[in-house]
User: Fold this.
Amino acid sequence: MTNPPTPPLLSIRNAAKRFGKTEVLRDVSLDIAQGEFLTILGESGSGKTTLLRIIAGFEQASSGELWMAGERLDPLPPYRRPVNTVFQQYALFPHLTVEANIRYGLNIAGVGRAEAASRVQQALEMVKMTVHAKKKPSQISGGQQQRIALARALVNRPKLLLLDEPLSALDANLRRQMQLELKSLQREVGIAFVFITHDQEEAMVMSDRIALLKGGHLEQVATPREIYARPATTYVAQFIGHTNLLRATVERGIARCGPLTWPVQLADGPATFSLRPENIRLANFAPGDHAVRFRARVKTQAFHGATEILQLETTDGLALAVRLAGGTTPQSELELQFSPADAIPVREEAA
Amino acid sequence: MFSRAYRAAVTVPPLAWVVAFLLVPYLLLFAYSFWAVEQGNIVHSWNLHNYADLLAKDVYRATLFRSMWIAARVTLFALLLGYPLAYFLSFYAGKRKDLFYQLVIIPLWVSYLVRAYAWKTILGTDGVLNTMLQYVHLTQHPVESLLYSPFAVVLTLTHIYTPFVILPIYASMEHIPRNLVEASQDLGASPTQTFWRVIFPLSAPGMIAGATFAFVLSLGDFLAPLLLGGPSGIMISNIVVSLFGAAYNWPLGAAVSLCMLVLVVSLLFVAERLEKKWSYT
Assistant:
């Protein structure tokens, strides 16, 4: 886990949540830095929404603490927390105009009429929705409602913005566009975002850091690059991108998996390694490198545009996926290599 | 006219039903209201005397206003009782929701007459309430004014029509997405502020529907004033009943009925417009 350099904005300490006998979260500790874009990534049922609801105050953790700027956050009701949420189904008030929806929080906070009006204007401009100010939520599209929900939350200048899978209801193109918009908007306003998604690509594109939840506990918290390059567990390696899991045996500093052997600095015994398909290359026989070379039969070759993905099988039946540059001539057998440094040791999941 | 009804009956039986049992009687009523009674016989001479009578004689106007005043109070009390109950039922009843809902429904299975007589038993001079008041020495003598008064009518009608108010309000509350409540709190609104800014406006269509039920049903009620109203609790429907019955003045009765009808229909029209205006789903 990387610790953010500045003192954390929000500190979740050993949070756990049980609904009856079901343990939804266990021992979650997580620091969120000022101005950070943190994504909580996980499959459905991983507890990510529960974690978000605990931060927002809609659920109470069964144990553990929340700290924000030196104060306990968890005893406060949702309406006293300096946190705003963008809900999954937007939750715009249907009886209020777009403008009145955005003004809602300001009215409650007792912001003066003139200031409220100018802040609402700014918020509308920020999400490019000024022309729709007088409409009711039912008169605008899903993508537009999404922007209003964002403006309604941000206009209050929260210390932390929570986003509960806000893009999941949008179609693919709009979704990609909104990902980039959200990211640049977050940079602009400098408010910390905690973004929830089950889409690893989305998490990679948008986040400063990713917190990967599995079955209610954090598997790994790291930057997208780090989590991709150095996954901590087999689950992380497989969930984020594609990978080859090499189940090897280490003996006196040498790992052996099928026909492959390479030097490692690990104790003797079984070990699992993650080897990304793009880190296996065509053998070039450059002198002086310590690449591991092997031959393999090509079983299938799938063209993906910029790259091609080949399913290989070595002579003694080890299956591997390889990603090569697009336009590779189909061949029945290939001579390949990988660098031992690219075989990342990962923790096996306890079943 | 007959052949049109016949064609309608062949193609659309429900239409025929409406025509036969609603439209035709209303048209007859409409015709009667312009006829007259001469020496105990109804004569088909078209005139506006009945309507002139309605405007001229205080008893009709006074009774109509009393009926509206009674209906207005019933509506108010039914709303005051029903709204909190519907709110509790929808938002706080939890697992017992179905049970409470049934408890609201059950009184509707009991005959109107039984419920009206029950109040007679409770409010009478030797009734349950008076006996209790004397037993605890709050009063020395029976309170005579409980029964046979507008109060008794309002009380009984409120009891009878409150479920009609609860149900539409409950239904409209059930349609309020719960994430709106969370969104409101998330934006800093306390539960009280959330109630007034989100739940109350979004339950307005249900309130209007419920209020309309209560007002229209009690405005036209004649059993409660008959059984519990006494002379001071007479309502407009009792006048209609007596005009069509003992007084044998069908034309005047028809004129009173038509006035009621116009009143109720315009009320329903306004209520529907309001309901549409304030519903967002």
